[in-house]
């Protein structure tokens, strides 16, 4: 098993989601008057980071076995199934399909004459 303990404080921050984003999402599901302690935010931050690392590591191992360098959305879904997070798979599959469709539409509209393309 890999040691995922960061050796420096800067390294610790690099592997964590921003605490402001976590706090904002936590507040969405609490009454307006609720307060969230700093240690609670940090605990959720650590759990989320560990979960992401756990799933990504499993997907990365699969890609390595298949001699691929890029982790795709389907690899993450496979990893979540393998790790027993089956209840997340269908909503994520729907989201991934919508994301891919939006990407196709963005690419198609970028290629049309007269379309607003900031990269052109």
Characterize the structure shown.
The protein has 120 residues and is mainly α. It is built from five helices and no strands. The longest helix has 28 residues, at 38-65. The model is unreliable at 1-8 (pLDDT under 50).
**Count of discrete alpha- or pi-helical segments spanning 4 or more residues:** 5
Return the CATH class of the domain at 9-85. Mainly Alpha
Q: Could you name the ranges where pLDDT drops below 50 across 5 or more consecutive residues?
A: 1-8
Number of separate strands? 0
Mean pLDDT: 87
* CATH fold label of the domain at 9-85: Histone, subunit A
Cα end-to-end separation: 46 Å
Estimate the global geometry from the Cα principal axes.
extended
Judging by the overall fold, what is the CATH architecture of the domain at 9-85?
A: Orthogonal Bundle
Helix/strand/pairing category: mainly alpha
CATH superfamily of the domain at 9-85: Histone, subunit A
Biggest beta sheet summary: none
Radius of gyration: 19 Å
Q: Helix fraction?
A: 55-70%
What portion of the residues fall into strands of 2 or more residues? under 5%
Q: What is the N-to-C order of secondary-structure elements (H for helix, E for strand)?
A: HHHHH
Domain Transcription factor CBF/NF-Y/archaeal histone: 16-80
Protein name: Nuclear transcription factor Y subunit B-3
Organism: Prototheca wickerhamii
Keywords: DNA-binding, Transcription, Transcription regulation
């Amino acid at each position: 098993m890999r040691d995922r303990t960061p050796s420096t404080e800067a390294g610790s921050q690099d592997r964590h989601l921003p605490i402001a984003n976590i706090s904002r999402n936590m507040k969405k599901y609490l009454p307006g008057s609720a307060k969230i302690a700093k240690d609670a935010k940090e605990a959720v931050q650590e759990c989320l980071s560990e979960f992401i690392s756990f799933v990504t590591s499993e997907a990365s191992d699969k890609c390595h076995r298949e001699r691929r360098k890029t982790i795709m959305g389907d690899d993450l879904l496979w990893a979540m199934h393998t790790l027993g997070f089956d209840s997340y798979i269908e909503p994520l599959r729907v989201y991934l399909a919508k994301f891919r469709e939006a990407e196709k539409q963005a690419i198609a509209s970028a290629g049309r004459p007269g379309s607003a393309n900031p990269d052109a």
